[in-house]
Structure formats: structure tokens, C-alpha cells
Amino acid sequence: MKKILAFLCLLTFVLGLHAGQNVTLKQIADGAYRAENIYGIKPMLDGEHYTQISADRKRIVKYSFKTGKEVSTLFDVTTARDYSLKSFDDYIMSPDEKQILIQTKTKPIYRRSFTAEYYIFNVKNNRLTPLSENGPQQVPQFSPDGFQIAFVRNNNIFLVKLLFGNSESQVTKDGEYNKVLNGIPDWVYEEEFGFNCAFDFSADSKMLAYIRFDESEVPMFRFPWYKGMAPERSEYQTYPGFYEYKYPKAGEVNSKVSVHTFDIKTRVTRKMDLPLDADGYIPRIKFTSDPEKLAIMTLNRHQNRLDIYMANPRSSLCKLAIRDESEQYIKEQAYSDIAFYPENIVMMSERDGYNHLYLYTIGGNLVRQITRGEFEVQEFLGWNQQTNTFYYRSNEESPLRSAIYKIDAKGKKTKLSSRTGTNQAIFSANQAYYINTYSSMNTPTLITINDNRGKELTTLLDNAAFKAKVAQLNMPVKEFFTFRTTEGVELNGWMMKPANFDPSRKYPIIMHQYSGPGSQQVLDKWGIGSFGDGGMFEAYMCDRGYIMVCVDGRGTGGRGAAFEKCTYQFLGVKESHDQVEAAKYLGTLPYVDGKRIGIWGWSFGGYNTLMSMSEGTPAFKAGVAIAAPSDWRFYDTVYTERFMRTPKENGDGYNAGSAILRAPKLQGKLLLIHGTADDNVHYQNCTEYSEALVQAGIQFDMQIYTNRNHSIFGGNTRNHLMNRVANFFIENL
Q1: Is 475 helix (H, G, I), strand (E, B) or coil?
Q2: CB contact at 8 A, 21 and 474
Q3: I need a surface site. Which of 377, 434, 646, 649 has the fewest CB within 10 A?
Q4: Strand pairing partners for 443?
Q5: How many other C-beta atoms are found inside a 10 Å radius of the C-beta of residue 647?
């Protein structure tokens, strides 16, 4: 018996060495298994250097592009004079890099907006000076000559003149919370047009231009605050409070927007004579290098016509330069990724069916289409005008992968990145170098410095320690797959199988997806998985005997306008059908138990979970919907109407895409999760959907998180959520 016992102990030990460790949900929630990365790289003017914040957030460090080595320290909290700081959050370089705005005491407002207290740091004399002592600031900007800084406080624009003892003056005076915003966007513009600053200086530093948002007629939305914990809001210990803000839901009134200029010397304010539709949008303004040309980008309410006007900031005259139109909608990159040069404009368009680069004169005449083919340009990375070479990132090799390219004036294309997977690049100011961030499904982040021929000069980060740490885990076997639906549509997916996968067994499946317009979850990069960490949550579930799957259905990105926009005016219909088709396909695989398939997702993914489970086919035994929209009538104007038009125009589409109207057809066990302070997808979506289930006599589970926003985190919250999701599937699959 002793010999047998000794043998069994030895066997257990040996097997343990090969089995590897199991990751815990607490470790995942705490980020213990997140790959390292390098953040906040900012190229300098000379083209030879870049800057970055030190890990302890006490220094701004200058590095060489050629070697990747530290060259000097531009700012150090321990040696800066006049004011003492323990650390800082971010910084803004002046145009000549002689001064730096140091950002401290940052307080978030919404997804991109925040207030902070800024200090002006003089690089030459090592002195710190407060930007303003009259309260926190938002979105400060240096003037091009570096002698002025404009910022927003309490919805008004202020101007600080550095040559006059940092004298502060007020540019606008009608700003008021929940009524008028000057120089910063309202909630829906910030969230859906993706920016937080709505003013700019002219090239000669003599004028300011800004967008004015009058949201006084936009309907108010209110949600409650409770005392809660982590953080605790003690002021609501006995009675709840509330937060209210202007939130335009589909079909409702938006802010009235207008563009104004302010003459800094004469202090004259003018309103631009912009031929904007009464319900139109202004998603961007930008001064060109000509101080007499202010570029104003406008959209009609359907967002299928983009106009770029050149406005004279003094005469107020606006002249149409470029118009781009689509039958469905214009994607955000057309105005968010636009670049203005002294004589030209580079912008993106899907006019030939795929997202490509186009070169215009500054007056709006099309010079030529820069890129072409059945692939998508994902990012414009720069134009070297001396060599007439354009740099960009695209998915030419595969919708699952991206690479860095350059193309010359004759159309000769050169691939610069060498590794197959996902590549991103930050170029030096003169395009002589670029920092390449690479990863693949099985390779965590690798960051190198390369020259503009693609030659690797040095490695900044290889994640060797992280790879060794992950190698000790029971990581799942990751693979891509493709299948064809019964309608003949080819869809891409990834699958993660248990480390000890046995093809003779029948495994339950858990499908995760997002499925929103233009999104992609099936990509050859490390950050796949439901929490973007290389599949750590999936590894936890694989350890417990599940196969984890993700499928990008119709409406997702990377495959051209026709594939992405085929869901137009009927969001949720084809997307949910494709998840059902994916479940049916998976059920045919010999190692899958087709009667034990689950589905889950967050935000649009939560919505599509509800739609898929009530599509009419009993494909799913269990599902989890987190922070899910349940009827597009509850969501904001800009996003919803971009894909659906208004409820009045498209009632059939809104009804077809309503998870609430589908609720009586729900099949399978369901867990609803939502935060009570979600300013994006309101808790209203959860309450109205759950009520529909109650009235239909359908039982379900529900998990509410007090005072949590759309991201549902803080304290132990994310760990609790992960356990809730995992345990729900374990109990029901």
C-alpha cells in the first residue's frame, strides 16, 4: 500500500507539472495577467525624438527614435521650481516645445471629458506657474505662436496671455450647465462623434473659432445616486440624490449648433454664415494653415452627407469645398481622421465600396484616389510631402489582420511591417522612423522602432517576462475558423479549446460577441477575448470544461461597406440571425454538445444576446446580457439614427429591432446585468425589458450594480461580475 501511495503521489506531482496553473477570476479582474504595453508616446518636432511619462508619473522623458534610449528629462516634479507636485497625469507640449502644460488632479466627467488643474512649465528656467487660479480647466490649447492658452471652464472659453503676466480674460459669457456649452461638445457629440474639444486657434494666433451648443431644448434625463461603496457618497446616506443631464433619444431634439469666431485683438465675435440644416451636425472644426480658411465639417441628420466648408473667420462667408455622400451613412473616420496640409487635404471615403484615402487641393478639387482595392484603410499615418509618400495601416492581407504600408506618387506600394497579425504605428514628425506595436492571437504585445523602409532598429518591449508567466498557465488552444451560413454568407470566428482538449468528448459552448456596426472581435491580435486580455476569462472557463467561441456576423467591420451596412435600418435582425446560425453550425461539430450552447455580450453584445435568444430558434440554453440596450427608442440620436433613421421614419425597423417586443419569444435561461448610474445605456433599458419578461410570465435572473456606469467597475465590482457570469453558465450549461 505504501508503494502504491508513493507512486500515486509521484504521478500526481508529475501530472501537475505538465498541467500548469489555473488562473483565478480575482487575478483576471485585478489585471494580474495583462500584457505590458507602452502608452503616451508623443513624437517631437525634430523627427529624431519622442517623449513619454515615466512609470512613476514624476517625469517627462525624452527618448531617441534611432536607439530607443533615454536622452534627457524635460520635466521632473522633484526639481521643478516654485510649485511642488507629487506626480502628474498628462501633459501638452507647446508648438515650439519651449513650454509644457502639466495636467494634475484630473476628474472624469464622461467618456472623454474631464476637468484638471494645469501648470505652465517653462523648460528653459524650470519654473511652474498655475494656468489659472480661478478653478479647474478643460481642454487647454496653446496658440500656434505659443504666447496664449485658451481653455474652457463652466462651459465658457477663457484666454490666458503669457506675455502679459498670464492675464486671464473671458471670451464667452453665456455658458451655463444644461443650457449652453462653448468650445466643448455636449454629451451626445462627445460620445458619438468622439471628441472633447470644440475650439481652435487660427494659424496666425489672432483668432479663436468655436462651436456653440445650445442644448436648452434637449430633453433632460435623470438617474439616481445612492450612498454605495468604493467610492462611498456619504451625502446620500439617508435619501438618494440624482444626476441630470441633457440626453437626446432617437427622434428627439438635438442641440442647436453654430460656429463663431473671436478676434483676440478687437474682441469682436462673429457667427459664421453656415448653410447648415436646422437639425444638422457639426462634428469638427479646424483652422487650416491659412488663417483666412476655417474648415467646418457638417452632416445632415441622417449622416449620409458630409460637407466640408471653408469659412472666412472675419467675413463669415462659408464656401463648400468637398461633399461626400452615401446611401446609408458616412463613417466617423471621414471627419475624425482628416488631415489638412498647406495646399492639400487627405481624407477617407467609402465611395468605391471600401475605405480608402483621397487627396484633394485645399480648395476642394480631387487630385486622385491614393489607395484602391478590396481592402480597408484603417488609419492614415502621415504624408511626407518632400518624397510624396503616404503612410497608412490597412487590412489588405486579411480582414483579421493589419499591416503598415507606404505608397508613392506613382502608386508603388511597400509593406513596412514584417510580422503577420495586428500592427499599429506611430511615425516621427518627418516619417523617418516609426514605432510598431505588434501582436497576434498567440503573441503578446511586441514593440519595435523601425526606419521608414521597415528595418527594425531596436526592440522597446518584448513581454518576455509576461510570456514566461503565461506559459505556466493552462491556456486554451486558440484557433480561427470560417463557416458558411444557410444563406450562403461566410463568417469568421475564433475558438478557444481546453488545454487538455479531447476530440472524443462532447463539450458545451459559450459564445461571446459584440456585433455592433463596424466592430471586429475576430482579429489576429493578443487582445481578443471578452475582456481584451488575450483570453484570460476564456482560459478560466476552458479550465472548467467549456469551449469558448466568438463569431463576427453581418454588420461588423473589415469587409467593406456592403457587408457592414447591410443591417441599415434593421439593427439586430441579421446580427442575431447570424449568431443563431453560428450556434447551429457549432452544434454539427463532433466534439460539441449542441444542446448546451450559451451566449453573452456587453452593450451592443448584450442587446444582441437578447435578440439572439428570442430570434425564434431555440439555439441557446443560457445567456447573459450586460448593460444592454433593449429598444433603440431609448438610445441617443447620433448613434441610433446613423443606422436606423428616426422612429417616425422607420417604425418597422425599430419594432423589428426591439428586444422588448421579442421578449415573449425568449428561450433559455437569462441573466440581466446593469449599473444604476449608466449614463450611456440607461438602466431604463433593463427595467423595461425585465418588465416585459414579467408580463410574459418568463423567469430570469438579474444583477444590479449600485452607482456603476456603463463599464461596471470599482472596488470589488468587476471581480463580482466575472464570478456572476461564470457561475451562471456553470449552473445552467
Answers
A1: coil
A2: yes
A3: 649
A4: 440
A5: 19
**How much is the pLDDT for 463?**
98
- Would you say 634 and 249 are in contact if contact means Cβ atoms under 8 Å apart? yes
DSSP string, 262-276: EETTT--EEE-B---
315, 321 Cβ separation under 8 angstroms: no
* Residue 497 CA to its chain's centroid (Å): 29
Place of cell 465675435: 269
Amino acid at 499: A
* CA 318 – CA 61 distance, rounded (Å): 43
- What is the rounded CA–CA span in Å between residue 315 and residue 298? 19
Q: How many CB atoms lie within 10 A of CB 505?
A: 13
C-alpha cell at 560: 467593406
Q: What is the pLDDT of residue 21?
A: 85
429 vs 401: CA distance, rounded Å: 26
Q: Give me the sign of the Cα torsion angle 705, 706, 707, 713.
A: negative
The three cell numbers of residue 243 are: 444626476
CB 421 within 8 A of CB 443: yes
Rounded mean pLDDT for each run of 10 residues along the chain, 733 residues in total:
45 42 94 95 98 97 97 97 96 98 97 97 96 98 98 98 95 98 98 98 98 98 98 97 98 98 98 97 98 98 98 98 98 96 98 98 98 98 97 98 96 97 98 98 98 97 97 95 98 97 98 98 97 96 98 98 98 98 98 98 98 97 98 98 98 98 98 98 98 98 98 97 98 97
DSSP conformation class of 219: P
| Interhelix angle 604-613/573-587, nearest 10 degrees | 70
Secondary-structure breakdown of the chain: helix, strand, coil percentages, each rounded to the nearest 5: 20, 35, 45
DSSP assigned state of 190: H
CB 179 within 8 A of CB 211: no
Angle between helices 717-732 and 536-543 (to 10 degrees): 40
**Cell representation of residue 281:** 451636425
Contacts made by residues 9-16, CB under 8 angstroms, sequence distance 24+: none
C-alpha cell at 550: 466568438
CA 341 to each of CA 345, 378, 681, 682: distance values in angstroms, whole numbers, following the listed order: 6, 20, 39, 42
**CA 702 to chain CA mean position, Å:** 28
CA–CA gap between residue 26 and residue 723 (Å, rounded):
9
**CA-wise closest residue to 498 among 6, 11, 19:** 19
The rounded distance, in Å, linking the Cα atoms of 260 and 555 is: 38
pLDDT for 12 = 37
